[in-house]
């Protein structure tokens, strides 16, 4: 008994001394992200793992509700406070770079060449002035969710590969009652959901139109082909009537309808897998977004959240923050992120991992990453509104798709001009 | 040195002022302060994130005047008032007059009419949204049953505003009824009895006794109801959640647009300018209503 006590005392002494020793060179850095239960839990675990590997570095992980995130960050910025490493939506990065809040990632630790070799192509969106300002752990892309039971009942053998097959499947799964009311949508349309991205980065491109000029300064979709692509989409609603906007009310009504077995197909992001998996009773599956023709050009919209280094990270904290950033964007963490959060890895190598690409649910999203583009938004909510309004001009006001699209392009050009007037150099 | 003895009344008043002072401080800090700072912000280009927030004079107001979405939000907001207030007043007064005539179950009816007012707004808005649904809503179910054409309601820019206004009228009707009932109760019975002795009845009693003596209540109801409609936000946001402000901004209000400008697009300067415009409009309309509608009567 006495020996045990003595041993415990010695052990305690040693531990205390070790603690003091470590305390002398302890660096504390702060990481901010918005609250998303599975992300918060994973990052808590990752922080423990990182601290165990890097004695002397302590990471404080703080999170805020999504709706308050920007305000919280903004007030921290203006007060000269805030984290060393921060999580941001890729579309906000230009604004943050511009405000002087982010520091460029040091080329020694993150060489642009290596980033472009190791990360999926859309990550290029985070490069300004030849430098990278932030990097993602995970990315998201779109795919087609289908209700396998409804397709089977409509005698459709396999999920659609072309948009023609898609239309046939949508028409055959659409059900109306005696009064002509839609009771099951073939396609759960939602211009304000993911469909505006579908039109912008998928339909336009597959119809041979680049939506914007390469430098992101000009709207270039208002062409005859662009109008044709746009008409193809609005025809789903006004001509073929395979879906109605707000079939189920609410922001995610299209997804709710799908989960309730009232929509044959929807276009949605990888981030929707979790709720669809939890809430869908019918058999369902995921397939890559259809193409215009068999073997035609594939296209997809991707988006991502990035981790950036703020100007607060200086000296020893900067070194620690760089280490943490390396760790957060490592392949090992990306794998965990996919397993526990359900977001796709940002590394090319993992994307090309045959085992991941063969996954029945994540596979189609992962394959989509190879050809996904992230739109360079300057004012995401205003730009979305422009396309949503254009769809409504056609389906509610019976405007011609060409005219609605021309007007949309003029409006969106104004938004871009406004931004570029204030930000002469990208 | 001796403290001068205060009279009991003075001491009591001092205490009252002391206690009143605390909420006043609170009011200044969380209401007046931010209101003035938003006036200050409205004169600057105030991006939420950008560190440079230059003074731009009235530029934000000029931008708003040229912004078709803001103009539409302003027009919509006025339409809500023009549609909502007369209907709400007429229905509220009619129900209050009917309730005043019955003795049995009056409390029950009053409670039933009042219930929407204490129902959580967001929940009510979502239920109404489903009621208007083209495929699943009971309203279209009724239309289909009697063979009338189906209506898009919230999906049509021409109908959506009225559909939202109907929900707000429903929601505030009970409140108006209770106010009207209190006003009606306060009219002394002797006026009616005297008029009846003189041979007046029905419409003439209502026209010459009820309406003039109810004037203070009417003015309060109109002013209060108007402010509610001018500040409309929660119901509109929740009834058209996907495409906020309805298809082609058919239901968009000034306050909802302020929210979109400020918190979705980070343009705090323009958002603050829009609130300044709204503040002046509410103040102006309220003063005008009080001036025009108030008709003090003495019998």
Automatic annotation (TrEMBL), chain B:
It is found in: Cell membrane. One of its GO terms (cellular component) is plasma membrane. InterPro entries: ABC_transporter_permease (IPR051393), MetI-like (IPR000515), MetI-like_sf (IPR035906). The chain crosses the membrane at residues 12-30, 78-99, 111-131, 160-184, 213-233, 271-290. Residues 74-289 form the ABC transmembrane type-1 domain. GO terms for biological process: transmembrane transport. Signal peptide: none annotated. Coiled coil: none annotated. Pfam families: BPD_transp_1. The keyword Transmembrane applies. Keywords: Cell membrane, Membrane, Transmembrane, Transmembrane helix, Transport. PROSITE patterns: ABC_TM1. It is a multi-pass membrane protein. CDD domains: TM_PBP2. Belongs to the binding-protein-dependent transport system permease family. PANTHER family: ABC TRANSPORTER PERMEASE PROTEIN (PTHR30193), INNER MEMBRANE ABC TRANSPORTER PERMEASE PROTEIN YCJO (PTHR30193:SF37). This is Sugar ABC transporter permease. It comes from Candidatus Segetimicrobium genomatis. The lineage of its organism: Bacteria, Bacillati, Candidatus Sysuimicrobiota, Candidatus Sysuimicrobiia, Candidatus Sysuimicrobiales.
């Amino acid at each position: 008994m006495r020996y045990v006590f003595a041993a415990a005392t010695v052990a305690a002494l040693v531990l205390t001394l070790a603690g003091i020793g470590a305390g002398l060179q302890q660096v504390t850095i702060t990481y901010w992200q918005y609250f998303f239960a599975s992300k918060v839990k994973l990052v808590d675990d990752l922080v423990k793992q990182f601290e165990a590997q890097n004695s002397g570095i302590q990471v404080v992980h703080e999170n805020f509700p999504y709706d308050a995130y920007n305000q919280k960050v903004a007030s921290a910025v203006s007060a000269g406070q805030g984290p060393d490493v921060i999580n941001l939506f890729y579309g906000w990065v230009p604004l943050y770079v511009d405000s002087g809040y982010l520091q460029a990632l040091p080329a020694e630790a993150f060489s642009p060449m290596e980033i472009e070799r190791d990360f999926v192509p859309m990550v290029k969106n985070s490069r300004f002035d030849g430098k990278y300002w932030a990097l993602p752990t995970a990315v998201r892309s779109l795919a087609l969710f289908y209700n396998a039971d409804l397709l089977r009942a409509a005698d459709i053998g396999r999920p659609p590969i072309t948009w023609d097959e898609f239309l046939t499947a949508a028409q055959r799964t659409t059900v109306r009652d005696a009064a002509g009311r839609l009771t099951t949508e073939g396609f759960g349309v939602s211009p304000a959901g993911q469909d505006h991205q579908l039109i912008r980065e998928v339909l336009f491109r597959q119809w041979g139109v680049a939506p914007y000029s390469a430098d992101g300064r000009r709207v270039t979709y208002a062409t005859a082909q662009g109008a044709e692509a746009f008409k193809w989409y609005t025809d789903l609603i006004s001509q073929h009537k395979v879906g109605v906007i707000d079939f189920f009310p609410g922001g995610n009504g299209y997804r709710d309808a799908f989960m309730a077995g009232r929509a044959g197909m929807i276009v949605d992001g990888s981030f929707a897998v979790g709720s669809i998996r939890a809430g869908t009773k019918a058999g369902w599956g995921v397939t890559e977004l259809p193409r215009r023709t068999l073997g035609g050009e594939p296209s997809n919209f991707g988006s991502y959240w990035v981790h950036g280094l703020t100007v607060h990270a200086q000296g020893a904290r900067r070194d620690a923050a760089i280490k943490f950033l390396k760790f957060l964007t490592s392949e090992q963490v990306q794998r965990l992120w996919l397993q526990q959060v359900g977001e796709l890895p940002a590394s090319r190598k993992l994307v090309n991992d045959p085992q991941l690409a063969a996954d029945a649910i994540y596979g189609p999203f992962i394959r989509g990453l190879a050809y996904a583009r992230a739109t360079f938004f300057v004012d995401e909510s205003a730009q979305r509104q422009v396309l949503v309004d254009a769809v409504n001009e056609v389906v509610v006001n019976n405007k011609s798709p060409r005219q609605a699209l021309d007007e949309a392009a003029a409006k969106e050009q104004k938004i871009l001009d406004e931004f570029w007037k204030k930000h002469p150099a990208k | 040195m001796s403290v001068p003895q205060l009279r009991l009344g003075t001491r009591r008043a001092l205490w009252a002022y002391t206690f009143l002072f605390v909420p006043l401080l609170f009011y200044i800090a969380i209401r007046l302060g931010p209101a003035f700072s938003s006036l200050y912000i409205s004169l600057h280009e105030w991006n939420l994130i950008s560190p440079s927030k230059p003074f731009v004079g009235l530029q934000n107001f000029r931008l708003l005047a040229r912004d078709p979405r803001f103009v539409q939000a302003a027009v919509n907001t006025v339409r809500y008032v023009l549609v909502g207030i007369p209907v709400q007043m007429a229905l509220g007064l009619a129900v209050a007059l009917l309730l005043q005539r019955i003795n049995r179950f009056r409390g029950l009816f009053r409670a039933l009419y009042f219930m929407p007012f204490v129902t959580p707004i967001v929940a009510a808005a979502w239920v109404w949204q489903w009621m208007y649904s083209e495929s699943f809503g009971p309203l279209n179910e009724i239309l289909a049953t009697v063979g009338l054409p189906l209506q898009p309601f919230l999906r049509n820019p021409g109908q959506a505003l009225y559909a939202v206004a109907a929900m707000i009228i429903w929601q505030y009707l009970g409140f108006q009824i209770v106010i009207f009932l209190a006003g009606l109760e306060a009219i002394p019975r002797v006026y009616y009895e005297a008029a009846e002795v003189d041979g007046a009845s029905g419409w003439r009693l209502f026209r010459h006794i009820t309406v003039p003596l109810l004037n203070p209540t009417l003015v309060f109801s109109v002013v209060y109801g108007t402010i509610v409609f001018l500040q409309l936000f929660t119901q509109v946001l929740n009834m058209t959640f996907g495409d906020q402000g309805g298809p082609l901004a058919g239901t968009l209000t000034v306050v909802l647009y302020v929210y979109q400008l400020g918190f979705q697009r980070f343009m705090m300067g323009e958002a603050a300018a829009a609130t300044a415009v709204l503040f002046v409009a509410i103040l102006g309309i309220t003063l005008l209503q009080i001036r025009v509608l108030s008709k003090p009567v003495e019998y």
